[in-house]
């Protein structure tokens, strides 16, 4: 009997490493081989990208591309669990790729340490079979969707905010809609909240990212049951999830319809009216005379009683605030009557100036516009940069978040 007197569907090394998933019905040897031959691109190496990359790397995907131009920061670590404290300041894409290689040296990792845009997306995406959208802004979502349709690549898209997450598979099958089918027009950029402003819990992105990795594995293995044409909604606070069926591909869709008008990537920043990143935009809604910087506010504190209105949600107010601040949220500025606002502020007919502050100086400007319509006898002034500027320039012990 020779040493080769058997029939092996997979190598001894792979059989030993991936034995537990080889035993799963509808995956098995053929699924493992397909996964090993797959080229998967992860766009965004943050809270979603970390679990996607970690699980796909561990499962034995052949090539794993990672796009991200950002660097690891302290406030990433609570949810971007692939990174360690020692990696703060390092490239996310390279850091994540290095960690994947440490876990599974057989995976071919490709680092794209670039800002994804219309000029480079087609050249990058054409080298991959499946794309995972792990980003946190609308402009990039449209870009990723359109390029996937143009190159006929299935797209696994996830998102997470606060206690909630959702996941869907777009452009996978003749009747499956793309993202633009469902959202032909972008939302008002002022109405969009990302986790930098709204917050998110680590296990939420972990759950959604893990499910994205699972969808990739199913697509790579040619498993019939996927979330193509469906949207899974996850409520982490209540511990509930539900799946809804999406409408079919729109034959009039601008990119995947029968007569598409988009045949190449467009200017997505112009289309969405917002930058293709998840950073906070610095709005300029007021005239300079209606604003003052943190140094100016510091200098006038203590001269007399100051009226400081803090527009942040109570959960942020609780993190830290100046002792004279009165918490009236932006939504309350919209809804309260002039009388109720006066009562909450404890202002009287002799009050001339009220200063308005928020986290970074955007909501405080919105509040000033609302308040001066309701209480026109008072001069409302926004503090530029909010508490973030205060922590950076006035008091370095003030908590940043």
UniProtKB/TrEMBL annotation:
* Principal place of residence: cytoplasm
Q: Which residues form the active site?
A: 195 (glycyl thioester intermediate), 358 (cysteine persulfide intermediate)
Listed EC numbers: 2.7.7.-, 2.8.1.-
List cofactor names only. Answer: Zn(2+)
Q: How is the cofactor bound?
A: Binds 1 zinc ion per subunit.
Q: Which UniProt keywords apply?
A: ATP-binding, Cytoplasm, Metal-binding, Molybdenum cofactor biosynthesis, Multifunctional enzyme, Nucleotide-binding, Transferase, tRNA processing, Zinc
Q: What class of enzyme is it?
A: transferase
| Record: residues binding ATP | 47, 68, 75-79, 92, 136-137
Q: What Gene Ontology biological process does one annotation of this record name?
A: protein urmylation
**Chain residues that bind Zn(2+):** 178, 181, 253, 256
Q: Which residues form the Rhodanese domain?
A: 302-399
Question: According to its UniProt record, what is one Pfam family this protein matches?
Answer: Rhodanese
> InterPro entries, per this entry?
MOCS3/Uba4, Rhodanese-like_dom, Rhodanese-like_dom_sf, ThiF/MoeB/HesA, ThiF_NAD_FAD-bd, Ubiquitin-activating_enz
Q: Which Gene3D superfamilies match?
A: NAD(P)-binding Rossmann-like Domain (3.40.50.720), Rhodanese-like domain (3.40.250.10)
- Taxonomic superkingdom: Eukaryota
State where the protein is found. Cytoplasm, Cytosol
Per the record, GO CC terms? cytosol
Q: Which GO terms describe its molecular function?
A: adenylyltransferase activity; ATP binding; metal ion binding; thiosulfate-cyanide sulfurtransferase activity; URM1 activating enzyme activity
Q: Which NCBIfam families match?
A: PRK05690.1
**Functional summary from the UniProt entry:** Plays a central role in 2-thiolation of mcm(5)S(2)U at tRNA wobble positions of cytosolic tRNA(Lys), tRNA(Glu) and tRNA(Gln). Acts by mediating the C-terminal thiocarboxylation of the sulfur carrier URM1. Its N-terminus first activates URM1 as acyl-adenylate (-COAMP), then the persulfide sulfur on the catalytic cysteine is transferred to URM1 to form thiocarboxylation (-COSH) of its C-terminus. The reaction probably involves hydrogen sulfide that is generated from the persulfide intermediate and that acts as nucleophile towards URM1. Subsequently, a transient disulfide bond is formed.
In its UniProt entry, what is this protein called?
Adenylyltransferase and sulfurtransferase MOCS3 homolog
């Amino acid at each position: 009997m020779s040493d080769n007197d058997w029939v092996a569907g997979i190598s001894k090394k792979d059989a030993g490493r991936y034995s537990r998933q080889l035993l799963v019905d509808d995956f098995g040897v053929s699924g493992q081989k397909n996964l090993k031959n797959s080229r998967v691109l992860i766009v965004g190496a943050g809270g979603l990208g970390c679990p996607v990359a970690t699980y796909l790397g561990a499962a034995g995907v052949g090539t794993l591309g990672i796009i991200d131009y950002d660097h690891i920061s302290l406030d990433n670590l609570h949810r971007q669990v692939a990174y360690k404290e020692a990696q703060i300041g390092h490239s996310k894409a390279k850091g994540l790729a290095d960690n994947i290689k440490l876990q599974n040296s057989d995976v071919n990792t490709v680092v794209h340490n670039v800002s994804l845009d219309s000029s480079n997306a087609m050249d990058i995406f054409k080298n991959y079979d499946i794309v995972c959208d792990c980003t946190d802004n609308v402009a990039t979502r449209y870009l990723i969707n359109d390029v996937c349709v143009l190159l006929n690549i299935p797209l696994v898209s996830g998102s997470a905010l606060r206690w909630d997450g959702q996941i869907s598979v777009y452009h996978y099958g003749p009747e499956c809609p793309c993202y633009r089918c469902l959202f032909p027009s972008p939302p008002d950029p002022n109405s969009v909240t990302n986790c930098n402003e709204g917050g998110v819990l680590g296990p939420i992105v972990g759950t959604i990212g893990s499910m994205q990795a699972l969808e990739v594995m199913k697509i790579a293995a040619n498993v019939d049951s996927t979330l193509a044409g469906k949207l899974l909604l996850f409520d982490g606070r209540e511990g509930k999830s539900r799946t809804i069926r999406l409408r079919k591909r729109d034959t009039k869709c601008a990119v995947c319809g029968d007569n598409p008008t988009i045949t190449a990537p467009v200017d997505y920043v112009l289309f969405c009216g917002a930058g293709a990143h998840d950073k906070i935009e610095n709005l300029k809604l007021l005239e300079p005379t209606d604003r003052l910087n943190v140094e100016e506010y510091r200098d006038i504190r203590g001269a007399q009683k100051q009226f400081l209105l803090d527009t942040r949600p109570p959960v942020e107010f609780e993190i830290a605030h100046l002792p004279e601040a009165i918490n009236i949220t932006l939504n309350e500025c919209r809804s309260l009557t002039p009388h109720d606002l006066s009562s909450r502020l404890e202002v009287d007919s002799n009050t001339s100036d009220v200063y308005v502050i928020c986290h970074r100086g955007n909501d405080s400007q919105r509040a000033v516009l609302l308040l001066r319509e309701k209480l026109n006898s008072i001069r409302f002034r926004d503090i530029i940069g909010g508490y973030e500027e205060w922590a950076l320039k006035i008091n370095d012990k003030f908590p940043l978040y």
